[in-house]
Design goal:
Layout: E1 4-8, H1 12-24, E2 31-36, E3 40-42, H2 47-51, E4 61-63, H3 64-67, E5 72-82, E6 87-92, E7 97-101, E8 104-107, E9 111-113, H4 121-124, E10 126-127, H5 131-150, H6 154-160, E11 162-166, H7 170-186, H8 191-196, E12 199-203, H9 215-227, E13 231-233, E14 238-242, E15 245-248, E16 253-255, E17 258-261, E18 265-267, E19 284-285, E20 298-300, E21 305-306, H10 321-339, E22 353-357, E23 363-367, E24 370-373, H11 375-388, H12 392-408
Parallel strand pairs: 1-2, 1-8, 2-5, 8-20, 10-17, 11-12, 11-17, 12-13, 19-21
Antiparallel strand pairs: 3-4, 5-6, 6-7, 9-18, 14-15, 15-16, 22-23, 23-24
């Protein structure tokens, strides 16, 4: 098999591109290889549900081998590339280095948390981008409840029961809403903590929360959070983080043991080592047909790609799952067209809707120009995620998890030791 299509990344973009290529490329016409550093897709919009205890962590991931047919999966870390020689360098699970040749390359490496040089941030804050971070955040909340229940010092209890989220985009707003929902369910089992009260603080540097959605919906979302007793600080930045405090702009010092950083994303660092042109934001510079400028046979999609946004001329597409999925479907068709000697098509997709799930049967949404809020928006958000989740089996598991949580509440067990067994004899 002479021609090879290589896909880097197993997220929404990479997996969708591989599945689409399996359908549009004639069998035997080209080999398809997908490289991912893990063997699953993380369904990131459901990450708050895993953190909040409404979803079993295994049910917000999709094993790649379940969804791939004739695509070869290589679980390895991408370390670099040479576009002139048409090879990609990888390091496998045993640390061995390899070179993978390609005829067509699709870069879908995604993004990572954008960390600013704030004193103490890297040492004391926790992110909210990976499944490990989501579960760690849940465990942190349970641990602080246990410690606060045993504490006899009012000031210490204040810090333990205060939770600060920095960044009021999708991740921050949905994350703090789900975590407070979880806390509301379990705090009844902690009499001292219930009497003392818990504090949730959302900090945003811009003038309002959720600038990605219309202002009317953003205003409703902020009002709903405030109705639940949360505090929101807009036009405010984080200046310093310590073991038991967070300093905000304006001089406010907040006693806290939990700071969650959700203030933006950036392309994976390895993107800079692929020998491809980058735009001012560090994304791969590509055209409206998803082709990377300056090289032949290389395409870029998803969070790491600076794909021109048809809805906002002069700006790249936002780093959302719905854009990555539509780009992936198009790049598969364009790769197939290129191999057949045809002209690739332009990316013309415009956002058709936004969904912000805030738990407690509350959400805000906009679909096809119609704005929704409250219970109808929550129902639409859940339905949308069910439709987007790959595989009938995964969808059924989500529905079961949601039903069980509604009927029985959430489990306050702290399982931070999972995956870290003690040594034999300890």
């Amino acid at each position: 098999m002479s021609r090879r299509v290589l896909i880097l990344g197993g997220g929404f973009g990479g997996l969708t591109a591989a599945r689409k290529l399996e359908r549009v490329l004639p069998s035997g016409s080209a080999g398809i290889t997908l490289v991912s550093d893990v063997n699953y897709l993380l369904y990131t919009p459901l990450l708050p549900g895993a953190a909040g205890g409404t979803l079993e962590p295994r049910h917000v991931v999709v094993p790649l081998r379940e969804e791939l047919g004739r695509t070869e999966l290589r679980v390895a870390r991408v370390t670099g590339a040479d576009p002139a020689a048409k090879v990609v360098r990888i390091s496998d699970l045993d640390g061995r280095d390899h070179e993978l040749p390609y005829d067509q390359l699709v870069v879908a490496l995604g993004s990572t948390s954008r960390v600013l040089p704030i004193p103490g941030l890297a040492q004391h804050a926790i992110g909210f981008k990976t499944l490990a971070e989501a579960i760690a955040l849940r465990n942190r909340l349970v641990s602080t409840l246990e410690r606060a229940e045993a504490s006899t010092h009012e000031a210490e209890r204040d810090a333990l029961l205060t939770y600060v989220f920095v960044g009021a985009g999708y991740a921050g707003l949905e994350g703090i809403a789900e975590l407070q929902d979880f806390a509301r369910d379990v705090v009844e089992r902690y009499p001292r903590c219930r009497t003392h009260g818990m504090r949730f603080l959302l900090v945003e540097a811009r003038e309002r929360v959720m600038t990605e959605i219309p202002e009317r919906l953003s205003t409703f979302a902020a009002a709903e959070l405030r109705r639940r007793g949360m505090e929101i600080r807009v036009s405010t930045t984080l200046e310093e983080v310590g073991e038991d405090f967070a300093c905000l702009s304006g001089g406010e010092r907040v006693a806290t043991r939990t700071v969650c950083w959700t203030a933006g994303v950036k392309p994976q660092p390895v993107v800079a080592d692929l020998g491809l042109a980058l735009d001012d934001g560090g994304r791969i510079d590509c055209d409206d047909r998803l082709r990377v400028h300056g090289v032949d046979g290389v395409w870029a999609i998803g969070d790491a790609a600076g794909v021109p946004d048809p809805a906002r001329p002069g700006q790249p597409c936002p780093p959302t799952a719905q854009h990555a999925i539509r780009q992936a479907r198009l790049v598969a068709r364009n790769v197939a067209a290129t191999l057949a000697g045809a002209e690739p098509a332009r990316f013309t997709y415009k956002t058709k809707g936004v969904f912000v799930d805030m738990g407690r049967h509350q959400a805000v949404a906009e679909t096809m120009g119609i704005r929704w809020r409250g219970l109808p928006a929550w129902f639409l958000a859940r339905t949308y995620h069910l439709a987007l989740m790959p595989g009938v089996k995964r969808r059924v598991r989500l529905m079961v998890d949601w039903a069980v949580e509604t009927a029985f509440g959430r489990d306050p067990a702290e399982l931070g030791s999972l995956g870290h067994p003690p040594k034999l004899g300890d």
